[in-house]
Amino acid sequence: MGEEAQSSLDSIWESKDPIFADKELLDIEHIPDEDRIIGREDEISDLANGIHPAIRGGKPRNTLIYGKTGTGKSLVAKHVTRSAEAFAQEQGTRLQRAYIDCTQATTETQVVIKLARAFNDPDETDISVPLSGLSTNAYYDRLWRVLDARHDVVIIILDEVDKLQENNVLMQLSRAGEAGKLDTCKVGILAISNKISFKDSLDERVLSSLQEREFIFPPYDANQLREIMRHRKDAFHEGVLTDDAIPLAAAFAAQEHGDARKALDILRNAGELAKDDGDDLVREEHVRNAREKADVDRFSKLLQDQPTQSKAAVYALSLIADAKNDEEFATREIYERYEQLTERLDIDALSQRRLADRLNEQAFLDILGVTDRVGRGRGKGMTNFYYLLEDPGVVQTAIESDQRFSESE
Ligand SMILES: Nc1ncnc2c1ncn2[C@@H]1O[C@H](COP(=O)(O)OP(=O)(O)O)[C@@H](O)[C@H]1O
Ligand SMILES: [Mg+2]
Asked: Is 27 part of any domain?
């Protein structure tokens, strides 16, 4: 532990970030001020109009929002409800909103527990909401009591609602007033989904009560994506972004169905790559490399909690997609590749039927795509065909970050 080691670290600690002035502005979770929100004026005012009655304690209209990823759905929902909450409180209305990410809370009970805990204050209500141990009905019962005790009106945002395993919670929440579960508190639901097909899974009654209003958020064009990034330019030190950086990132994200999340991911990654290179400018090449990195990161995140068997299934698919010209593959073809792979990885091979279960699970999670059509050869019945939603190279790089896969070459 010489003094030199100490001082060489000191020079790192003391140095200022050469690239970023305020990197948080580029975080996906960051909710920007209204003047940085581009091209969503109509959506914001439409949503606000539906929520308006809540400001004075009336029932907000239930709303369903659709649109592809990165079209600003979560942002607009959070922005408008945050503003409503603040305004209502100034008026003396006890309005509170709760945000549920249904990719995290996927069962009915998890959602009800989260809501009851979010809306509760045990010191005030004397009601406890334990993390586990009660029946679903008992949790509902506490939720209703908490709502009547503490709130005039609540707004519940159910983001990525298509990821819920059970729709009963939508029925309970959307009809709580009519069903006499609540005496005074009003409930408004804001359900958000990337998939328009979500509606097909809903009961008529639930659909009609959820769908008092419905919006579709369109994708952004390259101009809007450029504007969105320009309004976050102060994330970087002045002069660091070369002129090409934002337009190129916008062009990439526009190719990707106009996804603002992608645009901001690419821009942030480009800055990080420039920093790693010891460069003090963010150049075109950084943006190009960042695009690939953003794809890998996004895919890694999707896969991170997946068991090895599921990763092996996707990996097998990526290997055949690499080797063959076809894009879609039947379970049987994937299975052959998967069996070889399990030997190499030294793990047990699942049966073909179990592998099909895994593949369907992955398709549900948007890790893979699936279509069903008439199979090749033999029985000629309808068969599932699976395809990758990313380049095979991206998929492999992401999976190989798991050592088991990278070491088995
Ligand atoms: N109109 C917009 N103006 C500024 N930033 C936006 C806009 N739309 C989306 N973003 C940003 O892009 C990212 C993705 O948006 P998000 O609301 O999460 O999309 P979605 O929920 O539709 O997938 C977030 O960081 C968000 O702040
Ligand atoms: Mg979202």
From this structure: no
- Tell me which residue of 293, 310, 292 sits closest to 365, measured CA to CA: 310
Residue 120 Cβ inside 6 Å of ligand 1? The answer reads no
243, pLDDT greater than 60: yes
Task: Ligand 1, residue 40: give the atom nearest the CA.
Answer: 1
Query: What is the pLDDT, as a whole number, of residue 3?
Result: 53
What is the Cα–Cα distance from 106 to 94, expressed in whole angstroms?
28
Q: Decide: 195 in ligand 1 pocket, CB within 6 A.
A: no
Q: Same domain for 105 and 199?
A: yes
Rounded distance between C-alpha atoms, residue 26 and residue 369, angstroms: 29
Q: Are residues 167 and 50 part of one domain?
A: yes
In a domain, 348, yes or no: yes
Look at strands 382-388 and 329-330 and give their pairing.
antiparallel
pLDDT tens-digit series, residues 355-402: 999 999 999 888 999 988 776 665 567 789 999 998 899 999 999 988
Tell which of 178, 193, 216 closes a domain: 216
* Whether residue 235 has its Cβ less than 6 Å from ligand 1: no
Residues 110 and 164 in one domain: yes
Rounded CA gap, 284 and 261, in Å?
Answer: 19
pLDDT band of 248, cuts 50, 70, 90: very high
Q: Is the pLDDT of residue 294 over 90?
A: no
Q: List residues, by chain if needed, whose CB lies under 5 Å from ion ligand 2.
A: 74
The closest-lying atom of ligand 1 relative to the alpha carbon of residue 39 is 1
Nearest atom within ligand 1 for CA of residue 231: 4
Q: What residue numbers does the annotated binding site cover? A: 71-75, 220, 232
Q: What is the pLDDT of residue 312?
A: 95
On whether both 229 and 298 belong to a single domain, the answer is yes
Q: Is residue 31 part of a domain?
A: no
Burial level of 291, CB count in 10 A (0-12/13-18/19+)? buried
Q: Tell me how far the alpha carbon of residue 359 lies from the centroid of ligand 1, in angstroms.
A: 30
Which of 44-53, 135-144, 327-336 shows the lowest per-residue confidence on average (mean pLDDT)?
327-336
Q: Are 73 and 186 in the same domain?
A: yes
Residue list, annotated binding site for ATP:
71-75, 220, 232
Rounded mean pLDDT of the chain? 92
212 Cβ contact partners less than 8 Å away, ≥ 6 residues apart = 50, 61, 62, 63
Q: Is the CB of 71 under 6 A from ligand 1?
A: yes
Ligand nearest to the CA of 77: 1
Measured CA to CA, the distance from residue 71 to residue 11 in angstroms comes to: 42
193 Cβ below 6 A of ligand 1 = no
Structural domain including 270 reads: 3-20+221-302
- Specify the pLDDT at position 365: 86
Answer whether 228 contacts ligand 1 (Cβ < 6 A).
Answer: yes
